[in-house]
Target: Glycoside hydrolase 123 catalytic domain-containing protein
Amino acid sequence: GDHQETVPVEGVAGGGTAYGWSDTGVNDPRPLRGAIDPMKVSSLELLNVWCMPNSANVGPQDMPRELEPISLLAARNERESIQIAIRPKVSWGGSGIAGTVQVQCTDLCSPCGARLVVGQSLTLRRVVPVLGVPDALVPLDMPVCQLNLFPGETTVIWISVDVPSEQTPGHYEGEIIISATKSEAESTSQSLTKVEKHQLYRELRDCLDVVEPLKGRPSEEVVERVKSATSSLRRVLLSPSFADFFSDYGPIDMMEEDAVSSLSIRLKISLTVWDFVLPVTPSVPAVIGISDTVIEDRFGVEHGTNEWFELLDQHFKWLLQYRISPYFCRWGNGMRVLTYTSPWPADHPKSDEYFSDPRLAAYAVPNGPIVPCGDTAKDYLRREVEILRTKNHWKKAYFYLWDEPLNIEQYNGIRSMASEIHAYAPDARILTTYYCGPSDAPLASNNFEAFLKVPEFLRPHTQIYCTSEWVIGNREDLAKDIIAEIQTENGEEWWTYVCLGPGDPHPNWHLGMRGTQHRAVMWRVWKEGGTGFLYWGANCYEKATVPSAEIKFRRGLPPGDGVLFYPGQVFSSSQQPVASLRLERLLSGLQDIEYLKLYASRFGRDESLNLLEKTGMYQGPERYTSEHTPIDIMRGEVYRTCRS
Amino acid sequence: GDHQETVPVEGVAGGGTAYGWSDTGVNDPRPLRGAIDPMKVSSLELLNVWCMPNSANVGPQDMPRELEPISLLAARNERESIQIAIRPKVSWGGSGIAGTVQVQCTDLCSPCGARLVVGQSLTLRRVVPVLGVPDALVPLDMPVCQLNLFPGETTVIWISVDVPSEQTPGHYEGEIIISATKSEAESTSQSLTKVEKHQLYRELRDCLDVVEPLKGRPSEEVVERVKSATSSLRRVLLSPSFADFFSDYGPIDMMEEDAVSSLSIRLKISLTVWDFVLPVTPSVPAVIGISDTVIEDRFGVEHGTNEWFELLDQHFKWLLQYRISPYFCRWGNGMRVLTYTSPWPADHPKSDEYFSDPRLAAYAVPNGPIVPCGDTAKDYLRREVEILRTKNHWKKAYFYLWDEPLNIEQYNGIRSMASEIHAYAPDARILTTYYCGPSDAPLASNNFEAFLKVPEFLRPHTQIYCTSEWVIGNREDLAKDIIAEIQTENGEEWWTYVCLGPGDPHPNWHLGMRGTQHRAVMWRVWKEGGTGFLYWGANCYEKATVPSAEIKFRRGLPPGDGVLFYPGQVFSSSQQPVASLRLERLLSGLQDIEYLKLYASRFGRDESLNLLEKTGMYQGPERYTSEHTPIDIMRGEVYRTCRS
Model:
């Protein structure tokens, strides 16, 4: 006994405290020893790879889960996304990194030969933390990219499938192939540095100088010179720079460079595309503000210049992909706002192009010139309205004049502006955001009652009554009271908005909230019965005068509030904006509304609410799922019951 | 009025919510536009750089502060450290990173020509987060290194100065030079890839083939062949691969490659070395355990093989730099431990080398063979003791037999093992760790009284009573009660230990605790009057069988508990262990004890405690500084009053 005990084993028995018990990592019986060559070991020995739904916030500290096959459902004209998390089990990459992986993506193909093409319908982005929270989606090269992994850190890839409206319904399959590979530093050690290259250049030039002026020289000298050049050339070819090629005079085997092999991890993606086509024009307009001032400052463009028009155009087009209706905005005195969806005058062809785009559900018409043009505001406004009211797209137009009026003077300001507009077009829609009545002339004895009476007070100077969700709190029944005050029969609408409130646990788009909490903003709209949504804004960073300047959130606002995308320059040399996870979830929420609307069109609105309830997806602003499964169940149920 | 208001300015007036107000970033009047060339812009426009004391935990989310000059004080044979934080103001690096910086370090020089040499006395390490908390110190290349910065992330460099014992006291100055530079990817775009290189190689070989067998050929053919080769060579030289060099036939200006210039940020380091030499042998032995089992598993070496001895040797030597006395340990049944500072038998020259190293303050003697050797445990123990007790270093020896006995059987086990040892050497020191008396035979009516009576109960079978700080809680006065039970006049000692307890806010080495909390572990030892300290252990990671396997902390333990360093392989291709911040703070704490001891030797122990109190550095386990300043004040006061 004594003898044995002198060489005891740490573990179950002793102070090892569970030593080896949670050993979920490397289970392979063949241990990896010494320097690890990723080209000779199964990537599964080097990497944990697992999938997560798009509503999960997966950060650097997330721990591995089981790898399960990916099975997605998407309608046509829908985007569906999934996340793949990668965490190194070991390090093989040398300095500073755990290792490099190559990620490759195939087209998704159906048995009948239809395809969803990588780089077009299938895109990969890297999830980058902002303030430590996964949020920015930085595009990756397609169809192959390399990623550096860091020790003890989980790296996350966001995969999106955009199904075109005309895509053949059916079952599609493809693969994501993940391969541990040599780091770039290692591969470039095989290349020539600038210094080596310059050395080589000089030697070759010297060779040339020796043999070049041969014409007319005595043949003895020619022979000598050629000999000298030949031996220089031979020396160059035998130099260490070309050592890789000595052994083999034949073609180099470049296969080694190809990381994809039987050692790779192959992740099957299976996608069912069903016949439902999401309407091109979103059923619920979501109007989202873009600060033109922020664009001007950050990109250093002057208001009204060609560059300025180009940048606004880029922002408009990019945001339109997200089923939202952008408006540009600059702030005036008080909370007066100058809002406009097109920076061009109404008679400019670009305005017509913008407004008649079927993806645009609503557009803001400015109540004065955006770029000074010599006209008075009055004249400008009259002409704009006169042009627009003759168009088919006029039904999408709205005027957003003032943000959150607080007193009689401000309410009167809206009345007077609205009167002017209605004088030119009685059917013009004025949108007013508010969360209370005028404080200096209470409309009722308590705040909520006063808030309820705003439509009565503002009528007919507002058609879209846009209220803060913060007012409702967790008392969803109040939505009914609000709607009761809206004369929908006269074309009035009730819209809602979120901003710095409501806070957790209510749905909003703040950084650090749960993924389902982001997505639930739109579930709430559906349940409460609002017919539109407003958000200010998508790019409200702290002031900066360099496109690639670090993003800072504005002081006094919850992180992420007012920011739905980032300038691409911050994350790469790309000019394209970088979406936030929250913008993707806004899109998902808008898509969920189309599913629910389809279901309601078959079985009635009440049944659609019942579906939200019975799946556990959304029951109220404090009772909604934190898991993804209920979302898939809802979507699956709509698919099962509504497919043709 | 109307006209003006149509082009309002976002900001103070309106919904911009403090837009531009916290603009502490880019203040430069010349805005950076378009692609940023780091070689043409002052690095200060691209980077925030600031310094932080070594007791600060500076993570990726830390925000910039004012850059202040670095002024350090260090004794001889002391290590003093400072942190430099770098955060990009903008991105210039292209894909995935904000940009690359080059960090360069000069020697520290005194006016009389003495030097602290970069790479030897001056080292740079990168602070790498573990579980999101800054902890691992990964060595950087010296004297120049490149670092990638990430958007919105603070990168931290840990600079240590190790002052040799024989260093000339005086004032030293040097510089850290930080330069934004082109990313490696960009610079390598100027180099030849393997494919281009191979192409070039083939073309040159073809040239050679054409001209090589010229001997004996008709001169016409020679001329033709040389012509052909010459034109091939000319084509090669004009190829895009060498395009960089076309413009200039003279020597290339390689200065561009040198990132250090007037654009760099130069950070002055000023260091006062004073004449005090920290004793080579630490005044308070800190014995720190290393799991041999973990080494065996992770590095795949078999117990007792040459590789095994080499690895243990490497660990011993590396840890000895930290003023600590390592012991190796493996666990037996119950909480029996086999502890040994030298893996070799006592008569092996390496054991003598280990034990007589003046930096080693205490060593563990095993009570049986570590590697089976044919001897019985009894015989082996007797021979070890007989050899060691004749040596000068025998006074450093201790026997650590059992960890935290809990019942009479375990206490009896210690008694019987100790009796055997004392039979061979009556002056042998047995160390016993405990936090309570035997549960099945209470020594008193309450737990703390029973704990107090352990020395009386164990005597004479233990000389070093090593108790958990957890027992004391915040009642520092209990330390006096413990000491009252120790017969110091008979050579008995009171040591302490921390492990999973005590928890926050008490001093310990858990990840996520404040830096001063880590350092205060040793302040506490000094204040309470313990004469030694024990910690298990330095490398108690979860089981892994690959050197570079991800570090996992053991289940059920607070993160960082039992882990003071990491295998270098996890972070780079280096074999050298990577220190944790917590290990550096253990060292700093041990150095603080030497300062306090020096002060006590001049003014008495009470005055040293008074100094701790009046600086606000440490007053008790729940009352110690969270700021660094009191530490500098204490050190400055010792310097002021004790320098010669």
Observations:
- Chain B touches chain A through 135 residues (CB under 8 Å).
- Chain B has three domains: 43-184+262-275, 194-240, 286-580.
- The longest strand of chain B covers residues 265-277.
